[in-house]
C-alpha cells in the first residue's frame, strides 16, 4: 500500500465514522480514559455557548481551554454554519493526517542522520508503515473521534521537530513549541531536550544563536499568545483556569494518571507538599535524560538526542496530572522510527503490549462498576491507572536499555551483535 492510500484510508476512518455516528463524539468526550476536563470537546462546546451568550468564558470553572483556541475553533464552526459538526470532523481528520505524514518525514531524517553517524546504512520501515502506526493506532483514533484538543498538541510536538530537523528553521520550531505549551501546559518541559537536539544536529554549534535565541523566541511566542488572550477576555482568569489549575491539580477527575486518587484521599494539610513533589517529579528527569543521551561532538557514534526528546515526552506523559490514552498512543506511534537502532535490543515490548491490552479492556469495566452500577469503588479504577503507569515505565526502561546496548556496540565495535549478551547490574 502506498503512502497516499494509507493517508486517505486513515483519514476516511477518522472522518466517516463520527459523521455517520455523530453521537459517538459526545460519548467518547465523556470517557475518563479518552478525555479529561482540560482537553474535552464538551468543555469546548460549553465555551462556545458562553461566547454566544456574551458570558465570561471562565465563570463557573467549566472551561479550561485557552481563549485564543476557543475563539478560533468557534469562528471555524460559525463559518461552517449548520454543517459545523462535519467541519470539525474534517478539521480533526486533517490534523491527524498531517501528523502521520510528518512522522514519515522524521523517520527518514532519523535513519539518514544515524546512518551518517554510525557509518552503516539504516533503511528503516517504509513510509506507509510509519504512517499506519499512527493512523491505525486505536488510542489515537479514539482520541480523534472524541475531538480532544490533545490532537492539536500532538501535531505541534511533531511539527516542531520537523521545523528544526528537516526544514532547518530552528526559530520557527521554537515558536511552534510555544504554541504547544499555550495549548496544553506540559509541553513547556520539552524545551530542554528540544534545545539540546537542535544544538546537537546543527552543522556549526553556536550556542548564542541556537540556545539563547531559541529560548527568547519560545518565551516571546508564549507571551504574545497570553497577551492576545488577555486582549480577548480583558482578564487573566484563563491563566488560572488553563495552566495554574493543571499545576495545582484543582479539578479532581478520574483518569488514567497517578494524581487523582491520591489527592482524593489526601488530607488538605498535606496537599501543598505533595502537589509540589508531584510537579517536581513531572520534570525532574528531563535534564538528566537530555544530558545522558546528548550527541557529543567528541563521541561521533554514541548518544541520540532525538531519542532523548522522545524519552522526555514519554516521561512527561506518564507523570502529568491529566493524561489520556492518546498521550501513550503518540509515543507508541513514534516507536517504529527507532526500528533500526533501539527496537532490536529491547526485551519487554511484548510484555508491555499485553499489559496495555489488559488495562484498556478492564479500565472501562471497572469504571462502569464504580460509577454506574455502584458495586465497586475507586480502588478498582485506580488499579488500572497503576497498570497504565506500569506500561509507561516498562516501555521507558526498555527503550533506555536498548539505547545503552547500541552505545556499547558502537563504542566497542562489536562485529556480531546477535551473539552479544549484556546483563543489567
Which key phrases capture this entry?
425 residues, mainly alpha, 19 helices
Describe this structure in words.
By secondary structure, the protein is mostly helical. The protein has one domain (3-419). Helix content is 69%, strand content 0%. It contains 19 helices and no strands. It has helices spanning 3-20, 23-29, 41-52, 67-80, 84-118, 127-135, 138-145, 150-165, 170-183, 191-201, 207-233, 237-248, 259-265, 271-283, 286-292, 305-319, 325-334, 349-373, 378-412. The longest helix has 35 residues, at 84-118. The protein is globular, with a radius of gyration of 22 Å. The termini are far apart. The mean pLDDT is 91. Keywords: Endoplasmic reticulum, GPI-anchor biosynthesis, Membrane, Signal, Transmembrane, Transmembrane helix. Its main location: endoplasmic reticulum. Belongs to the PIGU family.
Amino acid at each position: 500500500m502506498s503512502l497516499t492510500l494509507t493517508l486517505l484510508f486513515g483519514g476516511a476512518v477518522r472522518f466517516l465514522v463520527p459523521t455517520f455516528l455523530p453521537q459517538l463524539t459526545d460519548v467518547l468526550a465523556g470517557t475518563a480514559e479518552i478525555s479529561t476536563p482540560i482537553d474535552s470537546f464538551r468543555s469546548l462546546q460549553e465555551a462556545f455557548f458562553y461566547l454566544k451568550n456574551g458570558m465570561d468564558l471562565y465563570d463557573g470553572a467549566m472551561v479550561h481551554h485557552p481563549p485564543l483556541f476557543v475563539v478560533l475553533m468557534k469562528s471555524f464552526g460559525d463559518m461552517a454554519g449548520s454543517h459545523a459538526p462535519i467541519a470539525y470532523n474534517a478539521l480533526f481528520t486533517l490534523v491527524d493526517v498531517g501528523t502521520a505524514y510528518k512522522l514519515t518525514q522524521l523517520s527518514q531524517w532519523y535513519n539518514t542522520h544515524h546512518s551518517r553517524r554510525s557509518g552503516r546504512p539504516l533503511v528503516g520501515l517504509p513510509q506507509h508503515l510509519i504512517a499506519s502506526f499512527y493512523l491505525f493506532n486505536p488510542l489515537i483514533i479514539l482520541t480523534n473521534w472524541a475531538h480532544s484538543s490533545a490532537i492539536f498538541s500532538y501535531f505541534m510536538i511533531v511539527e516542531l521537530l520537523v521545523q528544526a530537523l528537516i526544514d532547518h528553521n530552528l526559530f520557527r520550531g521554537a515558536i511552534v513549541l510555544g504554541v504547544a505549551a499555550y495549548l496544553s501546559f506540559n509541553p513547556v518541559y520539552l524545551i530542554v531536550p528540544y534545545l539540546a537536539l537542535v544544538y546537537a544536529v546543527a552543522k556549526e554549534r553556536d550556542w548564542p544563536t541556537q540556545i539563547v535565541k531559541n529560548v527568547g523566541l519560545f518565551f516571546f511566542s508564549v507571551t504574545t499568545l497570553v497577551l492576545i488572550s488577555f486582549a480577548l477576555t480583558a482578564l487573566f482568569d484563563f491563566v488560572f483556569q488553563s495552566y495554574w489549575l493543571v499545576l495545582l491539580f484543582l479539578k479532581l477527575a478520574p483518569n488514567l494518571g497517578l494524581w487523582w486518587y491520591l489527592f482524593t484521599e489526601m488530607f488538605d494539610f498535606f496537599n501543598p507538599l505533595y502537589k509540589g513533589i508531584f510537579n517536581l517529579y513531572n520534570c525532574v528527569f528531563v535534564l538528566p535524560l537530555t544530558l545522558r543521551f546528548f550527541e557529543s561532538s567528541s563521541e561521533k557514534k554514541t548518544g541520540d538526542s532525538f531519542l532523548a526528546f522522545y524519552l522526555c515526552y514519554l516521561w512527561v506523559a506518564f507523570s502529568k496530572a491529566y493524561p489520556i490514552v492518546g498521550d501513550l498512543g503518540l509515543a507508541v506511534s513514534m516507536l517504529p522510527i527507532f526500528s533500526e537502532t533501539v527496537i532490536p535490543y529491547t526485551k519487554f515490548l511484548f510484555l508491555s503490549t499485553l499489559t496495555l491490552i489488559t488495562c484498556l479492556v478492564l479500565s472501562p469495566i471497572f469504571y462502569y462498576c464504580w460509577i454506574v452500577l455502584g458495586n465497586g469503588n475507586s480502588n478498582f479504577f485506580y488499579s488500572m491507572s497503576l497498570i497504565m503507569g506500569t506500561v509507561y515505565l516498562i516501555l521507558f526502561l526498555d527503550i533506555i536499555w536498548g539505547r545503552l546496548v547500541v552505545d556499547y556496540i558502537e563504542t566497542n565495535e562489536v562485529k556480531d551483535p546477535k551473539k552479544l549478551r549484556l546483563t543489567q547490574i
